[in-house]
Write a structure and sequence with these properties.
about 0% strand; 7 helices; mainly alpha
Length: about 150
């Protein structure tokens, strides 16, 4: 049981957040790449509910157990593509927060893989998972019970 139950959250709040998720999903960004980023940011933010959710979503999308277990040490392995590494670096940098602007060394590699429009969507997706993480950590929704929609 969490501090705040799902029923206690104003319905329009989750509805608006889900609208943003739909908006992001309609972009040309790969669902697998977005879920990988969401899982990594959730790990960084120590959000058990979101780690559970995005791990299960990635498994449903066919992600390997090896890559899932190595995501927390992705810099130490060759299991992730250059594109994934660029996204993970970007997401981690934004999520750790700083008073300085995003360094060119983090932004410039994005332009090798993504259009400016896609970078906008990716930035919103990183901000969105950080929002979800903060909500779930505050509300303390119980982890381990998430079920992927449409999974058997």
């Amino acid at each position: 049981m969490g501090r705040i139950s799902y029923q206690d959250v104003p319905s329009a709040m989750f509805e608006k957040l889900r609208d943003l998720e739909t908006f992001i999903a309609q972009s040309s960004l790969s669902e697998q790449l977005l879920e990988l980023m969401r899982l990594r940011v959730s790990q960084l933010n120590l959000c058990a509910y979101c780690v559970d959710m995005h791990h299960k979503e990635l498994k449903h999308l066919g992600e390997s157990d090896l890559r899932l277990s190595m995501l927390c040490v992705w810099r130490e392995t060759s299991l992730f593509s250059e594109k994934e590494q660029v996204v993970l670096t970007f997401a981690e940098t934004l999520s750790k927060g700083t008073r300085k602007n995003l360094p060119d060394a983090v932004y410039d590699p994005l332009t090798s893989f993504f259009s400016k429009e896609e970078i906008c969507y990716l930035t919103l997706a990183v901000a969105q998972i950080n929002t979800w993480n903060k909500l779930m950590k505050t509300f303390q929704f119980e982890s381990g019970k998430y079920q992927v929609e449409g999974a058997v």
